[in-house]
């Protein structure tokens, strides 16, 4: 009975020991880890690691050495440039090796995949590192994680040496070291300043996951510090995914500028503007005003009504308010003839929108109603100008496309602020750029440019003051009928007051197509009356309102695993 109890107890101890105690059958360990760091005047480090690795009884192909190359500094990526020069044994015979980088870690895989080895083997890894020197106001520094804290096997002994670029630097050098698990400030290590190098050595074995980190600081001026331009290029390269959005607005601007340059500019015209004494042949005031500024203004519609009145299709009657205190002045539009066969589509559309099947309409009755017809009227005008060859495509459509695309990108960026700020900001700016360029994207054809130059010359004639009239040779004689003929065009171009000033004292009787009030009449008074009509017409057209690693290792800021370098390794 006692023997059975003893046997069961022994079995239990062995069973739990097998589960909970680490296995030592493989007996892998690093017998010696030695590193030599040579600081070059260029700021590069030449690093040689000599690793004496014991595989024990385990059969392996070789070892792998992981070296972190990507760090976080000032909330941005900071990448070391590491170049593996060669990997040899203690006699200088080269090992077969391969390198790969994943998730910011350079992995050096050493060994022959077709050969298995056991026992102790010597690996000498030589690599060059750029950007691993820290530059401070009062000193330069190497803060280097010699072994890394990622080895899964113990390390019996670690030594390290640092060679500075000038012999005079050793006497004033500052050095320290840290050991233990990642983040600890334990200093179970010795440092020594020799005549031609700085020496570091661990005082005890390192467990799996422990490491040695060294720090060396020296006088400034012996190592070349990267220029601001070099640092900027490094920053862009290291943070390409994060910084690309910052360049997106510039890209948007470049693309939109190229589109405007190719499609948004007018062809070259005569370039010289000469006085013209008539509007372009076959164009009405609404077409002239639209070709002039690419858009249909409310004054263009008012000018077209006056144009139809001058031609005998409409009569305008002024209706004063009934009381000096209450009410408001109004206008009555009276249809005199239809003449649909003689009118252009947009002129017919305007007549139909105003009168429908009736003969008269009060301007006040059009309010909150007429605006619904304006879009159809605009389409007819743009279609007519495209058909006649003044525009290659509908300018309003062009603006709408770019505005829609820009608004979509703007909204996309606006809702992206909670996720990626730089990308969201870039999209918002891009959206604004596209919308702004969209305003200037409509263009004229060659015929349209020549007509535009004609309009500019005609506008100069309409605006000319009496004292400057001598410069306009062959200008037509100022007659009352001439004033009426060109008045709608002057309204469309916004120079009706200047045009009326030229006929002050000549145009003394109101036209048949306008029924105003008062005994006093002049061209200027009449123009002011039409301005009032145009203002009220604008009101009728308006829609109703709706409701890392960058810190110093000296001065109490260091710890095991800090600085550059580090990583770890193992066997494979």
Kindly summarize this structure in a few lines.
The chain is of the alpha+beta class and 572 residues long.
- Percentage of residues in strands: 15-25%
Largest β sheet strand count, sense and barrel closure: 7 strands, mixed
Radius of gyration: 44 Å
Widest β-sheet, arrangement of strands: 6-9-2-1-12-15-14
* Overall form: rod-shaped
The overall number of domains is: 3
Low-pLDDT runs: 1-25
Number of strands: 22
Helix content: 25-40%
Q: First CA to last CA: what distance?
A: 49 Å
Mean pLDDT, nearest integer?
Answer: 84
User: Number of helical runs?
Assistant: 14
**Helix vs. strand class:** alpha+beta
Quaternary state reads single chain
Structural descriptors:
572 residues, alpha+beta, Immunoglobulin-like, 3 domains, 5-stranded mixed β-sheet, 14 helices, 23% strand, rod-shaped, disordered N terminus, DUF2207 domain-containing protein
Describe the protein.
- This protein is of the alpha+beta class.
- It has three domains: 29-226, Immunoglobulin-like, CATH 2.60.40; 236-265 and 394-442; 272-392 and 447-541, no CATH class.
- The protein has helices spanning 2-20, 228-238, 240-264, 285-293, 298-310, 345-355, 363-366, 371-387, 395-414, 421-439, 446-463, 480-492, 496-502, 523-541, and strands at residues 29-39, 45-54, 63-68, 70-73, 76-79, 81-88, 97-102, 105-110, 120-130, 133-135, 140-145, 158-163, 174-180, 189-193, 198-202, 211-218, 314-319, 330-335, 360-362, 514-515, 564-565, 568-571.
- It has a seven-stranded mixed beta sheet with strand order 6-9-2-1-12-15-14, with no helix packed on it. Strands 10, 11, 13, 16 and 21 form a five-stranded mixed beta sheet that branches.
- The longest helix is centred in the middle third of the chain and has 25 residues, at 240-264.
- The two termini are 49 Å apart.
- The model is unreliable at 1-25 (pLDDT under 50).
